Amino acid sequence: MIWIVITVVGAVTILFKASGPVLLGDRELPPRALAVVEVLAPAMLAALVVTQTVGGNGELVFDERLAGVAAGGIAIWLRAPLLVVMVVAAATAALIRLL
C-alpha cells in the first residue's frame, strides 16, 4: 500500500512540475500565485514530517521519534550541517528507544 502512495505522489509531482511550462509557456506567474507556490513545498514537507512523527492508527503517538525530530530541529537551529542533523536525530531516537 505504501508503495502505491509513493508512486502516485511521485507521478502527481511530475505532472504538476510539467504542467507549469506547458500551460504557462513564457508567461510569468502573478506575484500572488508565485508567493503561494514558494511556500507550498515547505508546508507539505512539514505536514509529512508531523504526520510521520506523531501519527498512529487513528491516534497521536508520542514516542522516541518526536524526540529525534526535536533534536534534529535544534541541530538545524544551531546551523549544523545536514549530515550532523541526521546523525543527531537518529542517535537521539535510538538512545531513547534503548532506554
Strand-pairing-aware structural class: mainly alpha
Reading the helices and strands in chain order gives: HHHH
Mean pLDDT: 90
Tally of alpha and pi helices: 4
What is the general shape?
elongated
Taking the alpha carbons of the first and last residues, their distance comes to: 32 Å
Low-pLDDT stretches are: none
Largest β-sheet summary: none
Over the alpha carbons, how many angstroms does the gyration radius reach? 18 Å
Characterise this structure.
79% of the residues lie in helices and 0% in strands. The protein is built from 4 helices and no strands. The two termini are 32 Å apart.
Short structural summary:
The chain has 99 residues and is mostly helical. The chain has 4 helices and no strands. The model has no long low-confidence stretch (mean pLDDT 90).
Main traits of this protein?
0% strand, single chain, 99 residues, 4 helices, elongated, mainly alpha
How is this fold's topology laid out?
Layout: H1 2-24, H2 31-54, H3 64-77, H4 82-98
